[in-house]
Amino acid sequence: MAIEGQKQLEIAVQSAHQILNSLNEVLSNPALWEGGGKEEAGWAAVDDARQKYKAATTALRGIVAAIFNHPQMMSLDVDSTVEKAVDQAEIDRLQKQTVELREEIVRKNDVLKQLITQMRELVRDISMWQTPPPS
């Protein structure tokens, strides 16, 4: 179960990365905004990555639930076992990693917001250029 859990976690991380890459590609490529097949293909890649991410996280949740519902886990006093097994250094390391990951998410969200703002400005500029002058 642990190997399958690790596999699903890796798929979820890859899918999340693909979502960001697909969004970046769609938002930074004006050719994908013009309509037709290219636009649908660009957004389809985002949706495909989103579906893979959703499936992987669902599978991962199922595996985690199966591990904790396993008869051997049910017979253990999980709280005391975990407390004894995990030392404070490991907890500190994980907390530090959590903070770093949250900061990375904030940075990536800022970049995404900037890309969306740029996309809006480009769409506004394009629509302004395509508007015929008043007669």
Automatic annotation (TrEMBL):
Coiled coil: 84-111
InterPro entries given in the database record: MED30
Keyword annotations of the record: Coiled coil
Gene Ontology cellular component annotations, sorted alphabetically: mediator complex
PANTHER family listed in its UniProt record: MEDIATOR OF RNA POLYMERASE II TRANSCRIPTION SUBUNIT 30 (PTHR36406:SF2)
Designated name of the protein: Mediator of RNA polymerase II transcription subunit 30
